[in-house]
C-alpha cells in the first residue's frame, strides 16, 4: 500500500488505537489486522492512528509513530487490506505538551503540523487547561478535544466546551457514546453537544477487535436521528477528511445545519 493518500471516499476515522503493542490498543499485529478489516467492513476508508502520549503511562514520540505506521502499512499491504492509515497521536493535556509540539517530538494530525488530538482526564478538567489550549493555539495548531462527552465535568457543563470551541478548538465525539455504551451521562452529553453544534467529528476510539472495535456507523446513524443526514455526513466524512488533509474546518456549515429552522421544527429545541 502506498504511503501517499489516495483521497478515498467513505468514512474517515480520526481516532483509533490500531498500532500494535505500543499502548492499550491492539496487542498484536494479528489483532491490528483484524481491526483494520472490521474498519473496512464498517465503511471506513481511512484511519488516523492515535496512540497515547504523555498520559503518565505511554510515551509515543513522533519518530516512533512514523516508524510504526510504516511497518503497519506494509502489513496491511501484505494482507490485502484496503485501509489507508495516517499517523497521529492522542496527547494528554499536560503543561509539557506545547513544548513537545513546538519541538516536533509530539505527533500532530497526519504529521501536518496543523492540528493535534488532545485528551482530558476522565472525571475533571485540569487546573490550567485553558492556558495550555491557548499555548497550543499560539503555535498555530488547532486542538481537537477528544471524547468530551466522556469527561464528567464537560458532560455536566458543556458550556465549558463551548468556551474552548469559541477560542478555536474543535471536538470529537465517540461513536459508541452515541448509543449508550459509555453510560447514560455520556450519551446524553453527546446528544446535547452534537445538537448544539459543539462536535465536529465522530470517531471510533477503537482499542480492540471485540467490544471497542473500529465502528463508526452506529454513531453516525444515531447522529442522523438526533439531527439530520447532512450533519452526520459532515461529522463522519467531510470534516475528518478535511482535518487529515490539513484543511480548515468550515464550522459555519455545521452551525447552519444543526440550527436550521427545519431541524428545530422536526426535532424540537
Walk me through the structure.
The chain is of the alpha/beta class and 269 residues long. Helix content is 43%, strand content 14%. Strands 3-5-6-7-8-9 form a six-stranded parallel beta sheet. Helix 8 packs across helix 9. The longest helix has 18 residues, at 62-79. The chain is globular, with a radius of gyration of 17 Å.
Question: For the residues shown, what is the average pLDDT?
Answer: 93
Output the helix-strand order.
EHEEHEEHEHEHHEHEHHHH
Amino- and carboxy-terminal Cα gap? 47 Å
Assign an overall shape. Answer: globular
Strand order of the largest sheet: 3-5-6-7-8-9
Q: How many helices does DSSP assign? A: 11
The radius of gyration over CA amounts to 17 Å
What structural class do helix, strand and pairing data support? alpha/beta
Beta strands, count? 9
Q: What fraction of the residues are assigned to beta strands by DSSP?
A: 5-15%
- What oligomerization state is this entry in? single chain
Q: Which ranges are low-confidence, i.e. pLDDT below 50, for 5 or more consecutive residues?
A: 261-265
Largest beta sheet, briefly?
6 strands, parallel
Helix percent band: 40-55%
In brief, what are we looking at here?
The chain is 43% helix and 14% strand. Helix 8 crosses helix 9.
Features:
6-stranded parallel beta sheet; 11 helices
Sequence-ordered SSE layout with sheet pairings:
Elements: E1 11-16, H1 29-41, E2 44-49, E3 52-53, H2 62-79, E4 84-87, E5 90-92, H3 97-103, E6 115-119, H4 129-138, E7 142-146, H5 152-156, H6 158-167, E8 170-174, H7 184-195, E9 201-203, H8 217-226, H9 229-244, H10 251-258, H11 261-267
Parallel strand pairs: 1-2, 2-4, 3-5, 5-6, 6-7, 7-8, 8-9
Helix pairs in contact: 8-9
Amino acid at each position: 500500500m502506498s504511503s501517499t493518500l489516495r483521497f478515498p471516499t467513505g468514512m474517515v476515522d480520526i481516532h483509533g488505537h490500531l498500532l500494535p503493542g505500543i499502548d492499550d490498543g491492539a496487542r498484536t499485529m494479528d489483532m491490528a489486522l483484524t481491526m483494520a478489516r472490521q474498519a473496512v467492513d464498517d465503511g471506513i476508508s481511512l484511519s488516523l492512528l492515535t496512540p497515547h502520549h504523555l498520559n503518565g503511562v505511554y510515551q509515543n514520540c513522533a519518530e516512533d509513530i512514523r516508524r510504526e505506521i510504516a511497518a503497519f502499512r506494509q502489513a496491511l499491504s501484505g494482507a490485502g487490506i484496503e485501509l489507508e492509515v495516517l499517523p497521529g497521536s492522542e496527547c494528554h493535556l499536560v503543561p509539557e505538551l506545547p513544548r513537545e509540539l513546538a519541538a516536533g517530538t509530539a505527533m500532530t494530525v497526519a504529521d501536518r503540523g496543523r492540528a493535534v488530538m488532545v485528551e482530558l482526564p476522565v472525571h475533571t478538567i485540569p487546573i490550567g487547561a485553558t492556558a495550555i489550549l491557548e499555548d497550543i493555539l499560539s503555535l498555530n495548531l488547532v486542538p481537537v478535544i477528544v471524547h468530551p462527552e466522556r469527561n464528567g465535568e464537560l458532560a455536566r457543563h458543556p458550556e465549558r466546551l463551548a468556551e474552548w470551541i469559541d477560542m478555536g478548538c474543535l471536538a470529537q465525539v465517540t461513536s459508541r457514546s452515541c448509543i449508550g455504551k459509555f453510560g447514560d451521562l455520556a450519551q446524553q452529553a453527546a446528544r446535547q453537544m452534537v445538537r448544539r453544534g459543539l462536535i465536529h467529528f465522530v470517531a471510533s476510539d477503537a482499542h480492540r477487535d471485540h467490544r471497542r472495535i473500529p465502528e463508526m456507523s452506529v454513531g453516525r446513524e444515531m447522529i442522523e436521528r438526533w439531527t439530520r443526514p447532512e450533519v452526520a455526513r459532515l461529522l463522519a466524512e467531510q470534516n475528518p477528511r478535511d482535518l487529515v488533509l490539513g484543511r480548515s474546518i468550515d464550522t459555519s456549515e455545521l452551525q447552519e445545519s444543526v440550527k436550521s429552522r427545519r431541524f428545530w421544527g422536526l426535532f424540537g429545541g
